[in-house]
Amino acid sequence: MTIRTGMSRRQFGALSLGGMTAAAIGAPAIVRAQTAITFAVPNPSALTWLPYWVAVGEGYFGEEGYEPTLEAIDGSSAVLQAMTAGQAHIGAPGPGPTLGARARGVDVKFLYNLYPKSVFGLLVPADSGITSPEQLAGTVVGVGTADGAEVSFTSAIMTDVGLTPGEDFEYLPVGDGGTAAVAFLREEVSAYAGAVSDAAILASRGINLTEITPEAYLGFFGNGIAMLESAIAEMPELAPAFGRAMVRGMRFASDPANKDTCLAHCAAGNPQEGEQDYAAALFDGVVERMTPTDAYMGQGYGYQPPEHWQAIHDSAVASGALSEPLEDLAGAYTNEFVAGWNA
Asked: In a 10 Å sphere around its CB, with 0-12 CB exposed, 13-18 middle and 19+ buried, how is residue 117 labelled?
C-alpha cells in the first residue's frame, strides 16, 4: 500500500517543477530542491505514525528539503526487507525484529524511539476470566503477522511464565484491527497481542478487552525509526532532518489545542481511518504512548534507554527469538542524533 503525502498547507500555492519547488506567482520566490525518500511502516494506520503525518501536514519535511512517501507494508520483517532491498530509505520496525536482523548480519540501526511506552499489549476478552499470561496455556494467541514485533514481545512475556510457543500455546496470524475482531467473534483465538491502534478498533467493534500485560513489560518500547548503516553513510543528512521533522510533529501534536488539526492531517494520510468514531480516542492513546516517561523526558523525544535495550535483548535470548546473545548490542542503536533533534 502506497500513501502519497500530497501537498502540505505550507506548500499550498507552490508549483512542482521536476525535483524543485517553485513559488507560485505572487508568492515569495523561495526555491529549494526536494529529495524524494520512501518511509516504510508495518501497518497503514496514520494515527500510529502520528508525528510523521503531522510533520507532512505542517510542512516540516519540506522545510528540511525532503518529499517523503509512506509505504505501508505487512509487519516489521517486511519493513526490514524493504530497507535491505533498497526499496525504502528509512523504516519503522520493532526492536525485536531489528535485533533478529542484526543477528543475521543486516546493518540496521535503530535511531528514534517512537514509542517509549510499549505500543503492544496482551489482550483478552473482558468476560474470559483470564487475568494473567500463564492462564493462556493450551490456547491460541492471535497476532497481526507471524514475524511481527508483537510476536517477540509476547514470546518474552510467555517465556517468563514458563510457556513455550508451539508447545504450550500457539500463535495464529489474524491480521490487524478489524480482521482480529473476526477471529475473536469466531472464537479462533483466546487472546490477541495488539498495538494501541488495534485495541481502539476492537473496542469500536463492541469487543470488550482487558489487558493482562505484566507491568514489567509495559516499559518495553515499541516501533521506532531505523536506517541501514550503509544508508546513513550514503545520505548523512537524512537521519538528522527526518528526526527534526518528527520531533516538531510530536511537539505540535502534544498541544491539546492542535488536536483537531492533527486529526485532519492523519485523515489526509488514511481517510478511511479518519472517518472512524474511534479516531479521537486513538489519538489520545498514541500521544500518551509516544510521550517519554518522567524518568527520560529530560533526554528528549527519540531517546533509547540502554537498559531497556538490554532487557529486550535478554528476553529475546531467553525466549529463543535470538539463538545467542549479540556480540555488540550497542551497535544495534544510537542516540547520537537525539540532542540535535530536540535542540
From this structure: middle
